[in-house]
Design goal:
With 119 residues, this protein is mainly beta. It contains no helices and 11 strands.
Length: 119
């Protein structure tokens, strides 16, 4: 199994910045996409940004121009630089990796890290 551990959440004022990091460990054979999702209270979990092992990046429209995802395939890490944060960015942010192990494929999730943006 693959384990994901996030770090870097916290409280910040609107307009501020935070950087989230995630490291994968365990039985890593192949990590296809790695990225970030978020879930605000009483809302569904939604994609923020993901990056494939080949470097293809997908961003949600609401973060384009503000957030930047980076990935180190050799170290099995993914980071999210969040700039110009808004109160509506407040949520629990989850690291995600799509794991491919032979004929087995599954989504691995981190425990989540809280991001709170005050107005």
């Amino acid at each position: 199994q693959v384990q994901l551990v996030e770090s870097g959440g916290g409280l910040v004022q609107a307009g501020g910045s935070l950087r989230l990091s995630c490291a994968a460990s365990g039985s890593i054979f192949s990590l296809n996409t790695m990225g970030w999702y978020r879930q605000a209270p009483e809302k569904q979990r939604e994609l923020v940004a993901v990056k494939s092992s080949g470097g293809v990046t997908t961003y949600a429209d609401f973060v384009k121009g503000r957030f930047t995802i980076s990935r180190d395939n050799a170290k099995n890490t993914v980071s999210l630089q969040m700039n110009n944060l808004k109160p509506e960015d407040t949520a629990v942010y989850y690291c995600n990796a799509y794991v491919v192990q032979g004929y087995v494929e599954y989504d691995a999730w981190g425990q989540g890290t809280q991001v709170t943006v005050s107005s």
